[in-house]
Amino acid sequence: MSYMSYMYGISLNGLDKLRQEENHDVLEYIKSFDNDGGFMFNRETTTERIIIKNKMEELLDDGSHSGASFGCMMRIIQSVLIGVNTCQDLLKKIEEDEKKMAEILKEREAGEAGSSGESEEASEPSESGEVFETSEA
After folding, report:
1. Which residues contact 37 (CB under 8 A, 6 or more apart)?
2. What distance in Å separates the CA atoms of residue 72 and residue 59, rounded to the nearest whole number?
3. Are 107 and 119 in contact (CB under 8 A)?
4. Is the four-CA dihedral 65, 69, 74, 76 of positive or negative sign?
5. What share of the chain is helix, strand, coil (3-state, %, to 5)?
6. What is the DSSP string of 79-108?
7. Is 79 contained in some domain?
């Protein structure tokens, strides 16, 4: 799984949590968020918004995020909430990314299989009968 597939997946999980009625305030906070400090380093000044921000962090930050990865996840969530993307778009991106990763792995395996055959051809026995790799550079 690639990093972006992981980010899309945890963003979808976050959206599921936000759609619960008790989290509507957090959903609206994210949807309307526009602050220069970004999601992670934003400093709210009103008690109500501080409470909502803390609730958002408790709800969506499982402790595995850096400031950057948390902010990335939040912007992906926000993009769905404001209509730039849909959950279906994220699922499609995950599927496309997984296909690309499978193709890359297949190409690597094919390359490794081809290179291991070349190294056998490039080996020469020494006078003692031991085989040493030779360089064709």
Report:
1. 43
2. 16
3. no
4. negative
5. 70, 5, 25
6. HHHTTSS-HHHHHHHHHHHHHHHHHHHHHH
7. yes
Structure tokens at 53: 């921000």
Inside any domain, residue 25: yes
- Residue 131 is predicted with a pLDDT of 52
pLDDT tens, position by position, 2-15: 888 999 999 999 99
Domain, as residue range, for 81: 3-91
- Regarding pTM above 0.85, the answer is no
pLDDT in tens, 17-31: 999 999 999 999 999
Structural domains counted in the chain: 1
In a domain, 97, yes or no: no
pLDDT digit string (tens) for 31-89? 999 887 788 788 889 999 999 999 999 999 887 888 788 899 999 999 999 999 999 99
